[in-house]
Design brief:
This protein is α/β, with parallel strands linked by helices and 336 residues long. The strands form 2 sheets. Strands 14-13-12-11-7-10-9-8-15 form a 9-stranded mixed β-sheet. The chain has a 6-stranded parallel β-sheet with strand order 3-2-1-4-5-6, sandwiched between helices. A hairpin with a 4-residue loop joins β9 and β10. The longest helix is centred in the C-terminal third of the chain and has 20 residues. The structure holds nicotinamide-adenine-dinucleotide. The site of nicotinamide-adenine-dinucleotide has 26 residues, from α1 and α4.
């Protein structure tokens, strides 16, 4: 029996989810939904399923939906997820949401709580860590190849001129970087942050509205110390991201999520280099690996608490983000 999926929000990313479902022989797209009629109609034609213009109407149709993708956007790219997500969860449908889970913590908490109350699978598309290279590195960590992890450094930057709000950069981009850091380091205890607005000729005082550069010091609950560099004013030829995990016996460096993985033993010069593990060539392929994992976990009917990159994980990164903002606003180290 295939997994019957619905997609809500048929912009660029909704269509990216649909492309993944279309290629997966274990899935059937049974409904698409967008409040913009033309977008829903166009997608319905493309994927051969009915179009709906509200989640309520989609639910009333009686079509059997086993799981739904939530690909709305809104303020800081997450403001619109709440209402349709609550409607879907309320109707007992597992949801794979886009990131950020929400730009408002209270709403993120409510969605996570409703999924928990209804014992539903709720995942978020924190796709950057769904790569064979990250998995290989995780296996090294679990096998003890690094010894005890002391330091995690992460850099993520994507040239992005968008200026929708002062906190757009940290709230919309860094769920990804912080999720990867949590994947290797666990929960975060304390943060301390500095921001800088990049130059913009036509911006107020010649500056961007958005706090477009950030440096964050972090202390993980287990004692690991970490650092995040983030920017909307850098990227391009610098690559997308660089993760460095330093243990007592070895360190690894993972470049661009899936592209290059380097292993450096501390007491030997015999390094290891892996390129494009599993044949994954670029970040764009992480949509497929993440969404197909979601499909697999639904078909296997895994327990909601076993979902990879769950709503709860996404809520935790949003809490780190709000602590980072608070640190900058108060000039203090903030304990989560
Ligand atoms: N995971 C990633 O790597 C990644 C990359 C880029 C964007 N994103 C995320 O994907 C999401 C979507 O981005 P996008 O660029 O496709 O946005 P978009 O604005 O192009 O599309 C969103 C669509 O949702 C529709 N919509 C809004 N409210 C709705 C509702 N209640 N019911 C039905 N439809 C509704 C809008 O009409 C619009 O067509 C954002 O949250 C963004 O942060 C994720």
């Amino acid at each position: 029996m295939p997994l019957n999926v619905a997609i809500v929000g048929m912009g660029n990313i909704g269509n990216t989810h649909a492309g993944v479902y279309q290629k997966n022989p274990n899935c059937k797209i049974v409904a698409v939904c967008d409040i913009i009629k033309e977008r829903a109609d166009k997608a319905a034609e493309r994927y051969g399923c009915p179009a709906f213009y509200s989640v309520q109407d989609m639910l009333k149709s009686g079509i059997q939906i086993d799981a739904a993708s939530m690909c709305t956007a809104g303020v800081e790219n997450g403001g619109d997820h709440y209402k349709p997500t609550m409607e879907l969860l309320g109707a007992g449908i597992p949801v794979l949401g886009e990131k950020p889970i929400s730009n408002e913590i209270a709403k993120a908490r409510e969605m996570v709580a409703l999924a928990k109350q209804k014992n539903l699978r709720y995942g978020i598309n924190l796709n950057h860590r769904f790569t064979p290279a990250a998995l290989r590195a995780k296996q090294w960590v679990e096998a003890g190849r690094l010894g005890e992890i002391n330091i995690i450094n992460m850099t993520m930057w994507i040239n992005n001129p968008n200026e929708s709000s002062p906190w757009f950069h940290i709230r919309a981009l860094h769920p990804h970087s912080l999720d990867v850091m949590r994947y290797f380091g666990g929960d975060v205890e304390k943060v301390q942050a500095f921001f800088k607005r990049g130059p913009r000729k036509d911006g107020p005082g010649g500056r961007r509205v958005c706090w477009s550069n950030v440096q964050v010091n972090m202390l993980f609950k287990n004692g690991i110390i970490g650092h995040l560099t983030g920017s909307y004013d850098a990227g391009g030829s610098y690559g997308l991201e660089r993760l460095e995990v330093v243990g007592s016996d070895a360190r690894f460096v993972l470049l661009d999520a899936c592209e290059h993985l380097y292993f450096y033993p501390r007491f030997s010069r015999e390094t290891e280099t892996y390129d494009y593990i599993g044949g994954m060539m670029s970040f764009s392929e992480t949509f497929g690996s993440r969404i197909n994992k979601w499909v697999e976990q639904n078909l296997q009917k895994v327990k909601p608490e076993e979902i990879d990159a769950s709503g709860e994980d996404a809520l935790k990164v949003q809490l780190v983000i709000e602590a980072i903002i608070e640190s900058w606003e108060t000039g203090k180290v903030v304990t989560l």
